[in-house]
Design a protein that fits this description.
This protein is mainly β and 461 residues long. Helices cover 6% and strands 50% of the residues. It contains one helix and 36 strands. The longest helix is centred in the first third of the chain and has 27 residues, at 5-31.
Amino acid sequence: MRFDALDRAAWLSAAALALATGIVVLRGDQVGLRLVRAQPGSDAQSVSTRAPIVLTLSEPVDGATLEGRIQVEPFISGTLRWSGATVIWTPAQPLQLDQQYTVTLQAGVRSQRGRALQADVRWSFRTGSLRALWLSPSEGATNLYRLDLSRPNASPEVLTQEPFGVYDYAVSPDGRYVIYGVNREANNPERDLWLLDLNTGERRLAVRCDGEVCQAPSWSADSARVAFERRALILGTVGRSPGPGRIWILDVERGEATPLFTDPQRIGSLPRFAPRGGKLAFYDPRQSAVTVIDTESGDQQQLPSVLGDSGAWSPDGARLIYPELLPFEAGQYSQLLLADFRAAIVAPLLPISASNDSGAAWSPLGDWIAFGRQPGAGSGSALGVHVWRARSDGSAPAEPIAEEVGQSYGAVSWSPDGKWLLAQQFDLTAINAKPEIWLIKADGSERRLLARDALLPSWMP
């Protein structure tokens, strides 16, 4: 058989293509699997103590080869999950504050095609220091402030500059974003949600709420979604006021907000995502119950309560503490109930007593509960809500941390290291008193005034 010039050209092209393909395949096997991206990244600073380690590989990974090949120093255990080329390692407990961590992805991890990571990949990051947040002043153009408690004599840093004030806020678990409600105008009750990137300082509109107020934001465990209330403004005899709330979910990356339920008659308030998993709790006033929904499966459970509070999640997302009226002696008192979803049990957290308990807050390890207690009538100190703490397993009696007569506390939260509490304090005995933010040692042995004329304290995660 004779080949003409066209045949030879076609044959040579095919041979060259086969050779190039062979080189690419051989080189791919030599290069192997690669780590494309890691979060937190190399030399990242002020990383959240709750941040997972998220890895993006060059190919979908064989999960079985990951086991034991992600090491963190200083040592901390964690749980592993993966999907396609994404790997997520979640620490079993919060990281230490202001600590340098080194992560090693060991050689031997393989892709689903069999390509291996040829050499160890190692990088380091540092967690953030102890930082508190609050809103100030308590009236007018309220804005968000942050204070680094590790720096002696440091001044609070203003994070927002909204001319008509910030209503409420929530910090993402990874510490990157703050989402907050912003009043549009002095005489306009409409309220939008804005998003602040704490890394870049960039501010953008997250949800525009025309004819509505949007408020009570709560972040999902993966910092990808925000649940919030959306209330239509209803015209009455004294102007427009918020109507019943409905729960919406914002996809932060896409910037899209959708209702949790397609049925517009489903109402709810105070949505709170669990710190782990996809469960969401909110209060349903029509059912007089706390509703817990698994946002992945759609399964729902209801916990009867008439007090309107959706409760506080444990750090592992398996338990929820919420208040309910219970009879005791000749009266009814607000008591804290503990719903354990793994054991399918609901029981009082503490022995029922003649006191009103509310505002539960879990410690980072889930071993302690801080809560507000208002002693019942006839106790001699019924004025004000005091701060108490108790073991979450009931192994020790509850004890007071702050119980000054005439002082009332609220918005209690634990520091990421579990050593301190933030609380909003109000002096009920003073004329024209303004709320204050106090730092309180977890055992009540120390306390320090952080801010006057301020409210809604919380921690950077």
